[in-house]
Design a protein that fits this description.
4% helix, 4-stranded antiparallel β-sheet
Length: 110
C-alpha cells in the first residue's frame, strides 16, 4: 500500500528537512494562497519494513542560483503575484561532503 502526504516548505536559503520512506515520489508542488506557503505532496510506501530517512529540499525563486548537484522536483506559482517557487532536493551524498578550498600548486619559474 501507499499514500500521499502533504508537507509545508519554508521559502528561504535554509534546507527543509523531511523524514520520508525510501522510494518516495514527489507528485505535486503548489503555492497555497490563503496560507502563503509552498506545499509538497509526496507519495510514500506504507510498508513498515521500508526504512525512513532524512531528505532535504530547498525552495528557490526564479533566477536564484542553486548548486549543480541539486535535483529539480517541481515549481509552484503564485496565481495572484509574479512569484514562482522552484523546489530542489539536496542529494544526501553531496550534502554530507564538506566544502574544500581548491588546492593550488605554485608555479616556480626557473
Amino acid at each position: 500500500m501507499k499514500t500521499i502526504h502533504k508537507y509545508a516548505l519554508k521559502v528561504s536559503r535554509e534546507l527543509n528537512r523531511l523524514t520520508l520512506r525510501e522510494g518516495f515520489q514527489v507528485v505535486r508542488c503548489e503555492y497555497v494562497v490563503p496560507e502563503k506557503t509552498v506545499y509538497l505532496w509526496v507519495e510514500e510506501p506504507l510498508k513498515v519494513d521500508i526504512p525512513e530517512r532524512q531528505y532535504e529540499f530547498r525552495v528557490a525563486f526564479s533566477g536564484e542560483p542553486v548548486p549543480d548537484h541539486y535535483v529539480y522536483r517541481g515549481t509552484a506559482l503564485d496565481p495572484f503575484g509574479p512569484e514562482a517557487f522552484h523546489v530542489f532536493e539536496a542529494p544526501a551524498q553531496q550534502r554530507e561532503q564538506p566544502y574544500r578550498e581548491p588546492s593550488f600548486r605554485p608555479v616556480i619559474a626557473a
